[in-house]
Each structure stands twice: as structure tokens, then as C-alpha cells.
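Subject: Sanity check before I submit

Could someone independently write out the C-alpha cells for this chain? I want to compare against mine line by line before I put it in a report. The sequence has 272 residues.
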Amino acid sequence: MLEILKYIILGIIQGVTEVFPVSSSGHLTIFSHVFRTFDPSVLTVFLMITNLGSFIALLFFFRKDVIVLIKSFFTFLFNKEKRNDPAVKEDFVYTWKLVVAVIPIGIAGLLLEKYLPTSLLAVGLALLITGVLLFIVYTLRNKKFEAELTWKNAIIIGLFQTTAIMPGISRSGITLIGGLSQKVEIKKVLKFSFLSYLIISVPVSIKGIADAFSKSESINVLGYFLAFVASFLATYITVKILYKSVKVKNLVYFAIYCLLMGGFAIIYHFVR
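---
Independent answer below. Compare away.
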């Protein structure tokens, strides 16, 4: 029973930290060491399965935006009469901006996945970096963030996102940093961040399911399922809260938290 509870807690941690700019992969790495729930060799599979829960929750939350983008995309491609509709054209271009933004992290993930350090020390240092970057953005809170999201913004955000393959570097956090550094309004960056996450998560989720089946003998099926459900619920509740109330000035709290958690991971690495 205690083991099952650990899986549920890890699922909740994934859901909350996937939305907040504090690195879900970093937190799951830390707490999997603390809880000693499963062999480190299947940590990647667990990350992918709980990521699937977050993916479905965010897909449901942004379902209206996703449906509109998909409709506009195919309308632009196959309906010549409506190609000049400003809304259709804008959504078509926005979809391609999302695709462009996820290409760098996709390439980086494929090339570097096997070489990424996953020790508590590495994760702790990465969380410290995330905290410092969030604090830098916080110092710019009095600046005006009104820019529309351009092709240049999408490319720069995509390049920023490549660093998020490192556990401890928050993908949503680094996307916020990339967008706000270009004075794009925070809710526009958040929306772009979550929608690009949906694109990234499709291949990641498929790979996670495939890997889970290949390692079925070494995983706790019930534990993974409950972690998936917990991740879904925690993600959905958290994104509803964050999306309504997030402001640049609030990033200081996430910055402090990342610094504290990074310090904890480093200390735990040396004393355990």
C-alpha cells in the first residue's frame, strides 16, 4: 500500500510541476531517489507515462484552441475560397510557429537523450540555473510585455526550449524566459508554451507507452496507472489555477522555490 501511495504522490508531483515553471523531470528525479520507488533504469519510462497524463489534461484544457487551430490548418490547405480569411490564415501561421518552436528540442532530445546526466547533483545545479533565470525575468516585471508572437519569437523560444531536455531545467519556465525576454505578454507565452508542449508530447507519449510494454516485467502496472491518473488530475487543476492568476511578479516565488529545491538536491546528493 505504501508503494502505491508513493506512485500516486509522484504522479501529483509530475502534474503540478509540469505546469509550474519548476521542472517536472527534475522533481521526479529527486523524489524517485528520495522514495526509492523503482529502479533508475525505468525512470525514463515513468516520466513518459506521467507525461502522457499531463498531455491529456492540457489537451482537454486547451481543446477549443486546439480544435480551432486544426480546423483552420486544414481549411487553409484544402479550401482555396477561405485562404484569404484573416482568422484562418493567422491560425495556420500560428500552427507553423508552434511546429518551428518544437523542432530544436526534438532534435536535441533525439541526439542527446542517452548522454544527459541524471544525478541529483546535476539536477540540483540545473534547478539553481532555472531559479536564477526566473529571478532575472522577475527583475524585468515593470517592463511592458505587449509584443505579438512573431516568427523570430517562435524560433528564439524554440532555441531556449532545447535546454529543457536537461532534468532540472523547466520547459515551461525556460519558454517563459525566452518569451518574456522578447517582451511577449506572459499569457501569450504561456499559451504558446502549453500548445507547443502538446506537439512535443505526442511522440514522447507514444515512445513511453512502447517502452512500458517492453519493460512490463520490471514495472508496477497498478502504480504506473494510478500515477498516470494522478498526473492528469493534478495537471488539469494546476493549469486552471495558473492560467487565471499568473503574473510576472509571481515568478519570484518560483525562482526562490527552484533555488531551495536545487540546494536540497545538491545537499541530498552528498549526505545520502
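---
OP: Matches mine. For the report I'm noting this point. The CA atoms of residues 71 and 88 lie 8 Å apart.
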